[in-house]
Amino acid sequence: MIPTLLPTYNRAPLAFVKGQGSWLETADGTRYLDLAAGIAVNALGHANPDLVAALTEQAGRVWHVSNLYQIPEQQRLADLICGATFADTAFFTNSGTEAAELAIKMVRKYWSDAGSPDRIEILTFEGSFHGRSTGAIAAAASEKMVKGFGALMPGFRSLPWGDMDALKAAIGPQTAAVMVEPVQGEGGIRPMPDADLKALRAMCDEVGALLLLDEVQCGMGRTGRLFAHEWAGITPDIMMVAKGIGGGFPLGAVLATERAAAGMVAGTHGSTYGGNPLACAVGAKVVEIISDPAFLAEVNRKAALFRQKLEGLVAAHPNVFEAVRGQGLMLGLKCKPAPADVVKAGYGEHILTVPAADNVIRLLPALTITDEDIAEAVARLDRTAAAMPKP
Questions:
Q1: Which of 194, 212, 249, 391 is most buried, judged by most C-beta within 10 A?
Q2: What gap in Å lies between CA 391 and CA 113, rounded to an integer?
Q3: How many CB atoms lie within 10 A of CB 66?
Q4: What does the alpha-carbon distance between residue 308 and residue 324 come to, in Å, rounded to a whole number?
Q5: Do the domain assignments include residue 319?
Q6: Is the pLDDT at 391 greater than 70, yes or no?
Q7: Residue-level pLDDT at 220
């Protein structure tokens, strides 16, 4: 008999009733150090007082009115995030998957309005993850995600990750856009080198293609800049944002230049819940906090500390860990055992991590994690590794 909850998740046998900062607590009072942060969502930790205050204040006023009307909180968030980024305009969604769908539509509408409606090819990269809608799984083209779901949306072409020669050979006058994560998350914490991002921007400019960045997981301060592409000194035409932007409240966005978004006029897209007052009140507070240069400087300091300690952990357990990878507080440990086994072993030490492809476990702590919690995290990972069966 099918359970009342559709069984699409392999859930861990854990349930949490309370959280504070980088810690979660079960009903019996057991505390877990959270290096998952809701898969890079709880960017400012659990029960962050600034976010609680923003949500509570807005909840006492108005929750939802729909986009039939002006929403002051939505306008404020748009002004904040456009003011802090390359973007001229923003559309707010409830998730990263919804942001992916709009981004794809925006690319196609751009070329349709430019007189080339058949120019729909979007180049993507193996190992990518852009969500689980039919359009997003077509973009990623992973067999695990597409098998059994029939004919896929046409117009996507997947290239080998990191193969700039393959990209150079593929891109051309038929290319509508290139869609890429500056740092792959699900794909195993794989950063695209700054030089490759610069070359990618140049190739798009050469053929007139749009550059579409997916910063759903690597954005919002996760790499030590507000957005990861800033390290390479480039700007996209369109960018998908979600996860950390709501600090735990469901919120996503598509950011774009005026040129890329010009075709998205009234009636071309919409959302009943997207950009509702509750989400935008929280999102505005998140953007205010994370975009502060002093906050980002602290992220970089803590990231360096964490990475240094993780390098020592790898050296101490060569039978379990091979290397540290990633950027900022978006870190991965390349494992010799199956990553799911390492994650499961961590439950015994009351530490939460996230498995990924390429035999990696992801470490995605709250950006507010303390130095003491970093030290405690490495100690618990050390005990986790020691408890793993010897090969």
A1: 212
A2: 59
A3: 13
A4: 10
A5: yes
A6: no
A7: 98
User: Among candidates 295, 212, 309, 188, which has minimal Cα distance to 247?
Assistant: 295
Tell me the average pLDDT of the chain: 97
Residues 188 and 204 both lie in one domain: yes
Residue 196 has phi, psi (to 5 degrees) of: -70, -40
pLDDT tens digits, residue range 12-24? 999 999 999 999 9
Residue 262 CB burial class (10 angstroms; 0-12, 13-18, ≥19): middle
Judge if 131 and 229 occupy the same domain: yes
Give the distance, in angstroms, between the CA of residue 123 and the centroid of all CA atoms in the same chain: 19
pLDDT of residue 151: 86
- Based on the domain organization, do 173 and 304 belong to the same domain? no
Residue 236 forms part of a structural domain: yes
What's residue 146's pLDDT?
A: 84
Express as a percent the part of the chain with pLDDT over 90.
93
Say if residue 173 is in the same domain as residue 308. Answer: no
The whole domain housing 302 covers: 293-331+382-391
Question: What ranges in 87-182 are assigned the alpha helix state H?
Answer: 96-113, 134-140, 143-146, 164-170
Beta strands across the sheet bearing 89-93: 89-93, 252-256, 238-241, 210-214, 175-180, 121-125, 156-159
> What's the pLDDT band for 149 if we cut at 50, 70, 90?
confident
User: Same domain, yes or no, for 180 and 303?
Assistant: no
Shared domain check, 219 and 77: yes
Residues 161 and 300 in one domain: no
pLDDT (average), residues 145-160: 90
Report pTM. Answer: 0.96
User: Quick one: which H or E segment has residue 214?
Assistant: strand 210-214
Q: What is the pLDDT of residue 389?
A: 86
* CA separation for the pair 16, 5 (Å, rounded): 18
The whole-number pLDDT of residue 144 equals 81
Which of 224, 258, 290 is the last residue in one of the domains?
290
Say yes or no: 151 and 271 in one domain: yes
Q: What is the DSSP string of 314-370?
A: HHH-TTTEEEEEEETTEEEEEESS-HHHHHHHHHHTTEE-EEETTTEEEE---TT--
Contacts of 152 by beta carbon, 8 Å cutoff, 6+ apart: 134, 137, 138, 141, 146
User: Does 344 map to a domain?
Assistant: no
241, 275, 290 - which closes a domain: 290
Q: How many domains, the chain?
A: 2
